[in-house]
Structures are given as C-alpha cells and as structure tokens.
C-alpha cells in the first residue's frame, strides 16, 4: 500500500527530493546553517537542520505564489486574528509537500529518528482554544484551495501560559516555545511600522477656515516588527503567509540614563514596549490588564492595516480601489478597532472624505462573530479608550452619529432599540461596543453554525439585523482533514485508502464511500484494531507522564477544551461521582469499564473554572485509589492541553463529550475532529452538534438535554433548581458528597460555593440536564457492549464528516463574502 502522505508534487520539489539528496542537504544545513558537526549535534540541531532543508523547497513555492498573485492582480484575503493555534509545523509542512517519508528515510540513514526530533518541536504558543485553531485550519485551507492570503496576528513570546497541575490546582508558567528559536520564521525588519498611543488630536484648516483634516499626535510610539511564516497548502501548490508582529521600543536603550547610572530606567521603555507581544490574553480583571489588552489589539491591527495599505499603494497607486483588491476579515471582536483605524488612514493620512472612506471601509471588511456570551463581546470604558486612542474615539462618535441617524430616519426603531444599536453603551459606565463597531463597519457578518447564526439574529444583534437585514449570514466552521485525519491518524487513513481509494485525500467528501463498509465485518475488525492501537498509545502516554494506568479495553470518554462553566465540565464530573456511588452501591451489576479524560486551561482570573480543575483532580484521586471500584471507573486530567495533545487524544476517543449548555457554544470544532476520527458524540443540540446530527444520522450520535429555546424558557419562567435537585436521588447524593468534603477532606468547605450556585441559580442548567445526561450515558453503555454495532456507528461518523472540512468553509467565504474566487 502506498504511504498516506505521498501527494503529487510540484516539479521542482520532485527533482531534488530523493532520500540520498535530502540526507546530503541535511548534513550541509547542519554544518553551515546550524554550525555543528554530526558527531556533536543535539536532537534540536537535527530538528533545525531538517526543517531548514524542507523550508528551502517551500520558499520556491512561496515566492512563486506571491509573484503570481501580484502579476495576475488576484484579490488578496487578509485574516486578522488575535490567535493562530498552529501547533507543531514540521509534520504539517513535510506531509503537505509529500516529503515526510523521504525525510524519514534520509534521517534514518544518518542515525536519526524523525519521530524523536518531531516530538521536540514546541507547540507555537499563539492561541488558546477553538478560535485560534480555527484560524490555523483556515490558513491551511486557504493555501490548499488556492486563495491568496495573509494571516495577521501577534508573535507572543510566552503565549497564554504553560499549565502545570500542583496538588490538583492549575499553576501558570510562561511558555518557552521560542527558547531554541523558530526555524520556520523570517524576521522582516524592513516591514516595521510605528504604533502610537495617547496624546492629542489637532485640526488642520485651510486658509479660508475650512476644516481639512485631523492630525493625531501620539505621546507614545513603539515599533511593530514583522515575522513571516510560510503556510503550505496540500500538495504544495500554494504557499501563503502568516505575518506576526513583535513589539519593540523605537529607542530600546536610553544611553544618557544608562551612563548616568539609571540602568533600570534606561530600559524602561524597552520593557514596556516588549510587554505588548509577550502574553496572550493578559488578565483583565484589573485596569492595568484591560489597558494592556486594548493596547495589544490596536498594536497588531494598525500594523496589519498599515502593511496592507502600503502593499496596495505600491501595486495600484491609489487607495479607494482597496475593496476591489483586498478582503479584510475580522476574526471575532478583537481586531474590531480596525474599522476606526482604516477610517483614520483613509481620512487623516490619505485625504479621503468621510462618506467615501466609510463606503470603502464597509466594502473592505467582513466580520465573524464567535460567541453570544456578553463578556466575549468586548467593550471598553470610554475614558480608557479616549485616553489611549483619542482620534479613534472621535471617529467612532462620527460613525455612531451616522448609524443612529440612519436608524432614526428609518422610522421603525424605538428609543430602546436605538440604544441597543449604538456603538456606545449608555447607562452606568459608558463603554465602546466593539461587536457593534465590527457589525456596522462590515458588509458581511457571519455566524459559525446554523443555530449560532439564528440566535445571533434573534439576540445580540437583533436590532442591528433589523437595520441591516441582509448582512448576517452563516458559514459553519470546518477543520482541515490533513492534520485532523491524515497526520494524526495514519492508521485509520491507511485502511480507508485500502477500502475506497485515494480520491478522498483531495476531496474529503469522498469519504462517503466508506459508508457501505460499516456493515463489513472484516473492515470493522481493521477499524477496531486501529482504534485499539491509538488507545494503547494514549494509555502509554498517560502512564509515563502521569503515572496512571488505564485499560485500553475500557471505553475512553474524553472532554478536552477550554475550561468554562458553559462547556459544563462540571456536569461530567458530577456524573462521574454519581457513577462512582452506583458502582460501589451495586457491585453485583455488570458495570462497563470506563476512563473519563479531561483536559483544558482555565483563564488565570476565572475562579470557578480553576476550581472545576481542582475538583476533577480531587475526584480522580479518590476514585482511582478506591479498591471498591475494581478499576471499572478512572478519571484522568491531562495537563497543558494543546494541539499536540489533541492529535494524540482525539484518535483514541471512543466517546466525545460536547455537552455545553444549549445556545451557548457558537460552533465547536473539537466535535468535528472527534467524529472524523471515529468517536461517537454525546452532546446537546448546541453549536455545530445540530448539523453533525443531521449529517451522521440520529442513530449515530447521543443527544440529550434542553434545547436552546427550552433553556431560555427555563431562565425566563422561574426555574427552581433546588426542586430539580431534590427530585433526583443520584444528583442530590453526588452534590452532597462534593459539597460536604468527601473529595476534599483537607478543606471540606472547598466546593461549597460551587455547589450552592447550582441550588441557587444553575444558570448553565447543570442540574436541569443531569438526569437526561446520566440516562444517555447508560444508553452509551448499552451500545458499547455490542462491539460490531458500536464500530459500525463510528465508521458512519467518519464516512459522513467530509462536509465539515475547512476547505468547504473557505470556498464559501471566498465566493459568498470575499469575492476572492479560487
């Protein structure tokens, strides 16, 4: 059987890519680019040399792609995102240009194991969760489907944080992903732009007293320096660019102060500037954290727009044609300040009047909303905004006046609706609403699943949708099958190729051909063997890393995602406690062996989320050590969840936990990755679960709980969680055990407030959905016992997930929003 990762390649790569040639080039790179002889080279040296050899081949395609875009005047897409969770790039790039196997042979001839050095590559600490991973999938798919694109973000030196678990508690440490350098990136010091903050605005008038323009005079200036990483599409046909900005002081060393003996003060400006690109999502529970976060968002946005404008002017000579040649996409509200910044560049720098600038701005931008949660729809205190960005505050007021006058003249809006449309939140602290700014400044506003888009129209943007009725549209998220099937699950990919051929490698919707093999006993056996091997790999990792022994024969039940109350890890933990009680109380029953895996980070200032992590570890400590359980139930929290861990855990999952409170998860992409790798989903009708259910079929997914409408009805109708809890013996017993200190004997009061919150309000409907969730888990047990049936359902999930490819999503963006048709 041909290897999974051997695509057809561009001619110039094929000509010089046999293992012997590659081995020679690796040694040359080791000597002349790393400065080492093979006798003293460390594994990191071999990693760097190998990457440099493949990167050289990528550069040819990178230059060719850029030149072609320029010569053919193709429309470019610019994707602005505060996160790009790209993970490790070595396998991704090697595989996409078809050199993984030849590099494996070449390195083996030099006595180097490619798997060992690949494991040394750090996960790039450029994101946190689904938002950043979606951006990474989108960048790969844009290159794959031949959309010319630049991604723009921040080159975080320390990322969000590295999570360690100490006595069950999350402890945050700086990420050190750049300690050995980044062999993928190119510093572009010539692409540096000034970024200003504070100061005042001056008006420039003509001789006859007419206002000509405004000039912002910032009091503080720093530099944004570009670092470029090539993004390789499948088969290497196009290579796009991820451009990340690093901050530095314009005058990094104040020599006079240093010579005067003020060594710390001489570096103060440098340290302050570099802080902008050091940490992702600084804690914003205090004013200093809020200010740093706003500074970060403006920093990367203005640098990106200045770069885009400069590139456009160098090619086309004037700026008003920008909407015809550039589609700028705002990935959530973080880069929403771009609307005001582009207006400033149009008006203050290039002399365009307001009306023309506003028309061009709206035609240039599109905005993806990723959440209905109020705290994620960013808003900033007006005094902070006005102090840091005084000219932008003026522009936002001007835009707001235009929008509100338009709404008032419409005649169909009352005062309350006018207030909800306003870019300025009145009543109490006045705040700038970044979601509203992104909405009014874009020609397209999309949700990321059918349900999310419908709720967006009905809730957070209901009045804006009424004012601009054709602006909202849906683009259901997708994932790249190259990373989330071909690379992370080569065993499954191999047996699929044997069964249906290779066409699905280029068109993943061809996986539909696998459907008929769900009833094939021989194929089910192969599928089961692949799943078993993946589970053994995860079991080995957990044993080696955490010292916890798990049985690969058990059902692997996995919930890995950001820790948040709406994602309801708490519901999963409570059900584990209830199951623990049942196993001990009824040892005579034929219980199903199960391992519950958890993984994810909690925001450093999110108390309840961190408490949930501690609870998961406390429950694990008690259950895993209790001989009465007889190993039938184990709980494992895997620290520092990231892309590489996802690539290990998702192929090993039997059951995928997608149990968010209905109406609160915009889409989810973990649900797609699990299903593509042959896990069955247990979930609510939330986010993309709704569409997954439609594609895989009712019999191949486990749905439970309240719908989004029912959740709203409960919240509005005087829901009494105490009555619900007291009517459920299993739930009340489990909550009593947690609340009374059974799992926290060192601090019996530790979880009292967490459990009291369920009795008092239960905003996330944990109690309301518990009985349905527990009953559905017992349905899972029943299906699991019939192995052929379980594997048939899992195979149908794989076969029917092709539609959830990010290639499909990007083609929809390109044709329906960006007008950048591949």
TrEMBL record:
<dbReference type="InterPro" id="IPR035090">
    <property type="entry name" value="Pyridoxal_P_attach_site"/>
</dbReference>
<dbReference type="InterPro" id="IPR000811">
    <property type="entry name" value="Glyco_trans_35"/>
</dbReference>
<dbReference type="Pfam" id="PF00343">
    <property type="entry name" value="Phosphorylase"/>
</dbReference>
<comment type="similarity">
    <text>Belongs to the glycogen phosphorylase family.</text>
</comment>
<keyword id="KW-0328">Glycosyltransferase</keyword>
<keyword id="KW-0119">Carbohydrate metabolism</keyword>
<protein>
    <recommendedName>
        <fullName>Alpha-1,4 glucan phosphorylase</fullName>
        <ecNumber>2.4.1.1</ecNumber>
    </recommendedName>
</protein>
<keyword id="KW-0808">Transferase</keyword>
<keyword id="KW-0663">Pyridoxal phosphate</keyword>
<comment type="function">
    <text>Phosphorylase is an important allosteric enzyme in carbohydrate metabolism. Enzymes from different sources differ in their regulatory mechanisms and in their natural substrates. However, all known phosphorylases share catalytic and structural properties.</text>
</comment>
<dbReference type="GO" id="GO:0004645">
    <property type="term" value="F:1,4-alpha-oligoglucan phosphorylase activity"/>
</dbReference>
<dbReference type="InterPro" id="IPR011833">
    <property type="entry name" value="Glycg_phsphrylas"/>
</dbReference>
<comment type="function">
    <text>Allosteric enzyme that catalyzes the rate-limiting step in glycogen catabolism, the phosphorolytic cleavage of glycogen to produce glucose-1-phosphate, and plays a central role in maintaining cellular and organismal glucose homeostasis.</text>
</comment>
């Amino acid at each position: 059987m041909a290897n999974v990762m051997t695509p057809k390649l561009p001619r110039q790569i094929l000509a010089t890519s046999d293992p012997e040639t590659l081995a020679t080039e690796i040694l040359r790179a080791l000597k002349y680019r790393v400065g080492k002889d093979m006798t003293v080279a460390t594994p990191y040296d071999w990693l760097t040399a190998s990457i440099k050899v493949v990167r050289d081949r990528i550069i040819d395609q990178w230059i060719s792609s850029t030149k072609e875009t320029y010569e053919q005047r193709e429309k470019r897409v610019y994707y602005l995102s505060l996160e790009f969770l790209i993970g490790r790039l070595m396998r991704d790039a090697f595989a996409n240009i078809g050199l993984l196997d030849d590099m494996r042979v070449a390195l083996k001839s030099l006595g180097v194991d490619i798997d060992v050095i690949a494991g040394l590559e750090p996960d790039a600490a450029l994101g946190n969760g689904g938002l950043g991973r979606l951006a990474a999938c989108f960048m790969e798919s844009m290159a794959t489907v031949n959309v010319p694109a630049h991604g723009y973000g921040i080159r975080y030196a320390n990322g969000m944080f590295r999570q360690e678990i100490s006595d069950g508690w999350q402890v945050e440490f700086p990420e050190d992903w750049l300690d050995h350098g980044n062999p993928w990136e190119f510093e572009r010091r010539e692409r540096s732009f000034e970024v200003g903050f504070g100061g005042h605005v001056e008006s420039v008038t003509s001789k006859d007293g007419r206002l000509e323009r405004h000039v912002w005079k910032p009091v503080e200036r720093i530099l944004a320096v570009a670092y470029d990483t090539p993004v390789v599409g499948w088969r290497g046909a196009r290579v796009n660019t991820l451009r990340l900005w690093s901050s530095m002081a314009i005058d990094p060393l104040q020599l006079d102060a240093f010579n005067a003996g003020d060594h710390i003060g001489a570096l103060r400006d440098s340290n302050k500037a570099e802080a902008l690109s050091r940490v992702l999502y600084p804690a914003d529970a205090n004013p200093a954290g809020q200010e740093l976060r706003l500074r970060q968002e403006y920093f990367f946005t203005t640098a990106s727009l200045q770069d885009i404008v400069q590139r456009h002017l160098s090619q086309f000579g004037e700026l008003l044609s920008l909407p015809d040649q550039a589609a700028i996409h705002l990935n959530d509200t973080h880069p929403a300040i771009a609307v005001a910044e582009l207006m400033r560049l149009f008006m203050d720098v290039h002399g365009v009047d307001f009306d023309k600038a506003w028309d061009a701005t709206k035609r240039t931008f599109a905005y993806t909303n990723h959440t209905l949660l109020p705290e994620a729809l960013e808003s900033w205190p007006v005094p902070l905004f006005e102090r840091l960005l005084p000219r932008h505050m003026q522009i936002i007021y001007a835009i707001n006046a235009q929008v509100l006058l338009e709404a008032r003249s419409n005649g169909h809006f009352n005062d309350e609706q006018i207030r909800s449309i306003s870019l300025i939140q009145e009543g109490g602290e006045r705040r700038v609403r970044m979601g509203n700014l992104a909405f009014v400044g874009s020609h397209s506003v999309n949700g990321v699943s059918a349900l999310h888009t419908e709720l967006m129209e009905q809730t957070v943007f209901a009045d804006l949708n009424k004012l601009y009725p054709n602006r909202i549209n849906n683009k259901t998220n997708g994932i790249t099958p190259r990373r989330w099937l071909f690379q992370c699950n080569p065993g499954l990919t191999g047996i699929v190729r044997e069964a249906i051929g290779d066409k699905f490698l280029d068109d993943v919707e061809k996986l539909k051909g696998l459907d008929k093999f769900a009833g094939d006993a021989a194929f089910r056996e192969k599928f089961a063997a692949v799943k078993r091997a993946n589970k053994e790999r995860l079991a080995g990792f957990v044993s080696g890393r955490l010292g916890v022994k798990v049985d690969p024969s058990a059902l692997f039940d996995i919930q890995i995602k950001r820790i948040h109350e709406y994602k309801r890890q708490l519901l999963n933990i409570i059900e584990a406690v209830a199951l623990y009680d049942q196993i001990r109380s009824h040892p005579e029953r034929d219980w199903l062996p199960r391992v519950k895996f958890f993984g994810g980070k909690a925001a450093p200032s999110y108390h309840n989320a961190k408490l949930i992590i501690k609870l998961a570890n406390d429950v694990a400590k008690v259950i895993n050590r209790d001989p009465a359980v007889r190993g039938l139930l184990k709980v494992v929290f895997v620290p520092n969840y990231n892309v590489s861990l996802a690539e290990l855990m998702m192929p090993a999952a039997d059951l995928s936990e997608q149990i968010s409170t209905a109406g609160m998860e915009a889409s989810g992409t973990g649900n797609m990755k699990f299903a593509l790798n042959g896990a069955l989903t247990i979930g609510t009708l939330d986010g993309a679960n709704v569409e997954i259910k439609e594609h895989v079929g009712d019999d191949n997914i486990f749905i439970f709980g309240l719908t989004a409408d029912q959740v709203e009805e409960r919240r509005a109708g005087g829901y009494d969680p105490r009555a619900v809890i007291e009517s459920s013996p299993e739930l009340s017993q489990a909550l009593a055990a947690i609340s009374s200190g059974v799992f926290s004997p060192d601090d019996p009061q530790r979880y009292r407030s967490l459990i009291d919150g369920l009795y008092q309000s239960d905003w996330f409907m944990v109690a309301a959905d518990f009985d349905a969730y527990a009953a559905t888990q017992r349905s899972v047990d029943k299906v699991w016992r019939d192995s052929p049936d379980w594997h048939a359902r899992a195979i149908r999930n794989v076969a029917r997930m092709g539609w959830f490819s990010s290639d499909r999503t990007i083609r929809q963006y390109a044709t329906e929003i960006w007008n950048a048709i591949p």
